[in-house]
Amino acid sequence: PTPGEQGWRAAVAALDAAHREVIAAVRERGAARLDERAGTAAELSAGGGVTYRVMLHGLAQHDAYHTGQIALLKRIYRDTATS
To answer: What pTM, to 2 d.p., does this model score?
Structure first.
């Protein structure tokens, strides 16, 4: 779809809501649980899975990656509009 102000605002609002949910979950469970492993029962019983801390780092990296993509797209749209 054509990018628009309403769609952008909805996407940002959804991202903000997701971040609030993550923050609330970390606060609820406490920092001490960040080093617990997460995964399926099979993964955990086999000694696998990753810690919640690692998952949070991955989430931050994921968001940073997409923020960079958004910055590039904004530049493309801005440069296209001015040429």
So the answer is: 0.72
